[in-house]
C-alpha cells in the first residue's frame, strides 16, 4: 500500500474565488479551484472530451465548465455531468500556514 505524499503547489493568497489556477506537478497538469464557499479543489486539468484546459473554465458552485464546449464537471468527484460522460482525477487538498498542498 502506497502512501500519498503532500506536495506544495501554491500559496492560498494566489487563489481567487471562481478563477482556476493551473499547476504542473511532474508530468501532471492540475487545476486548482477556490469556490465561493471557500473550499479548494484540485482535479486533472484536462477535459476528457476535447482536452480543454479546465483551469480556464467557468466555476459555478461546486462545478467547472470546460471552456471549449461547456461540459460540466463536479469538482468533488471529477464526474462529468449528464448528458455527457467521463471523469477526471480528483486530488486531496490540504492547507497549512497558507500553503496549499495536493496529495499524490
Automatic annotation (TrEMBL):
Read off the InterPro entries from this record.
Answer: Rieske-like_NirD, Rieske_2Fe-2S, Rieske_2Fe-2S_sf
Under PROSITE patterns, the record lists: RIESKE
For this UniProt record, give its keywords in alphabetical order, as a comma-separated list.
2Fe-2S, Iron, Iron-sulfur, Metal-binding, Nitrate assimilation, Oxidoreductase
Record GO biological process: nitrate assimilation
Residues in Rieske domain copies:
7-102
User: Would you say which domain of life the source belongs to?
Assistant: Bacteria
Task: Please provide, alphabetically and separated by semicolons, the GO molecular function terms listed in this UniProt record.
Answer: 2 iron, 2 sulfur cluster binding; metal ion binding; monooxygenase activity; nitrite reductase [NAD(P)H] activity; oxidoreductase activity, acting on paired donors, with incorporation or reduction of molecular oxygen
Q: Which NCBIfam families does the UniProt record give?
A: nirD_assim_sml
Q: What is this protein called?
A: Nitrite reductase (NAD(P)H) small subunit
**Record lineage:** Bacteria, Bacillati, Bacillota, Bacilli, Bacillales
The protein's gene is named: nirD
Amino acid at each position: 500500500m502506497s502512501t500519498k505524499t503532500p506536495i506544495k503547489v501554491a500559496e492560498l493568497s494566489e487563489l481567487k474565488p471562481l478563477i482556476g489556477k493551473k499547476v504542473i506537478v511532474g508530468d501532471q497538469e492540475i487545476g486548482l479551484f477556490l469556490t465561493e464557499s471557500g473550499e479548494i479543489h484540485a482535479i486533472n486539468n484536462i477535459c476528457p472530451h476535447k482536452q480543454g484546459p479546465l483551469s480556464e473554465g467557468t466555476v459555478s458552485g461546486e462545478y467547472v465548465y470546460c471552456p471549449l464546449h461547456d461540459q460540466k464537471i463536479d469538482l468533488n468527484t471529477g464526474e462529468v455531468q449528464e448528458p455527457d460522460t467521463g471523469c477526471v482525477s480528483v486530488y486531496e487538498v490540504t492547507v497549512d500556514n497558507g500553503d496549499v498542498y495536493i496529495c499524490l
